[in-house]
Amino acid sequence: MPEGDTGGVTAGQLRAFIERVERLEEDKATLTVDIREVYAEAKAHGFDVKTMRQIVRLRKMDNADRAEQEALLDLYKTALGMANG
Q1: pLDDT digits (tens, 9 = 90+) for 8-48
Q2: Residue 7: left if φ>0, alpha if ψ -120 to 50, beta else—which one?
Q3: Across the strands, what pairs with 9?
Q4: CA 2 to each of CA 6, 8, 12, 77, 84: distance values in angstroms, whole numbers, following the listed order
Q5: 47 φ, ψ (degrees, to nearest 5)
Q6: 3-class SS letters over 16-52
């Protein structure tokens, strides 16, 4: 068995994967800070951040999933006497 080879996985391959994940984690942390700053800026301009986050989450959904979610929310609100009108 070649040195650094353990069960078909070389130490070099493993190290490369780990380093890639670490770089991506750093990128993710940077993006998280950037997103937080955008929300802070929006809040400073008078926008409601909680509502903005809901809109971002809804925009990620496809139309069918969004319609299903809204229908369930309406159903639950009606069941609890919270529906408008």
Answers
A1: 779 999 999 999 999 999 999 999 999 999 999 999 999 99
A2: left
A3: 6
A4: 8, 10, 12, 65, 71
A5: -85, 150
A6: HHHHHHHHHHHHHHHHHHHHHHHHHHHHHCCCCHHHH
Cβ within 8 Å of residue 73, ≥6 positions away: none
Q: What distance in Å separates the CA atoms of residue 48 and residue 42, rounded to the nearest whole number?
A: 8
- Counting every residue, how long is the chain? 85
Using an 8 Å Cβ cutoff, are 12 and 3 in contact? no
* pLDDT tens profile 41-76: 999 999 999 999 999 999 999 999 999 999 999 999
Taking each helix axis from N to C end, the angle separating 11-44 and 49-60, rounded to the nearest 10 degrees, works out to 130
